[in-house]
Amino acid sequence: MGGMNPSSIQAVESVTLDAPRDRAEALRWFYGDLAGLEPASSGAAGDDLRFRSGRIVLTIRLAEAAVIDPIPVRLTVLVRSLAAVRKELDERGITYEVFTGMLSSDRSIAVADPAGYRVILRQDGTLFGF
After folding, report:
1. What is the pLDDT along the chain (130 residues), one digit of tens a residue?
2. Most exposed among 15, 19, 42, 74, judged by the fewest C-beta atoms under 10 Å?
3. Sign of the C-alpha dihedral, residues 109, 110, 112, 117?
4. HEC string of the chain?
5. CB 36 within 8 Å of CB 111
6. Which domains are present in the chain?
């Protein structure tokens, strides 16, 4: 996905999620291709996936019997283009919710990642093209 702004994770320092091992490829697509995060080096045993946004790292620990934390929102990712994200989600038949904040330009998408975590995708300063 093209754009002027790089994707970034909105978190204090790091985010760690657990996910089923059989969802690894779908998670690579979701966080790497769709959300535009930069892949980072994974663990030596290949038991996790890592994505970087500046100094912030998202680690997804892969396990056969992963327990998905039921917290409603686990992660917010600032993306380059919400319009492009929506198009890709629509093409793949993935459901999502669109939210508008206090300003009409403050919009975000809530979507479940392939492991089932609710993720917020935002684009700062969206005036047109949503």
Report:
1. 444 446 766 656 788 899 999 999 999 999 999 999 999 887 666 789 999 888 888 999 999 888 887 676 678 898 989 999 999 999 999 999 998 877 666 789 999 999 999 999 998 764 444 4
2. 42
3. positive
4. CCCCCCCEECCCCEEEEEEEHHHHHHHHHHHHHHCCCEEECCCCCCCEEEEEECCEEEEEEEECCCCCCCCCCCEEEECCCHHHHHHHHHHHCCCCEEEECCCCCCEEEEEECCCCCEEEEECCCCCCCC
5. no
6. 8-122 (3.10.180.10)
Q: Say which residues have a Cβ less than 8 Å from residue 62's Cβ, sequence separation at least 6.
A: 19, 20, 21, 24, 46, 47, 48, 49
Tokens representing residue 118 in the block:
């609710």
* Among 71, 82, 66, residue whose Cα is nearest residue 112: 71
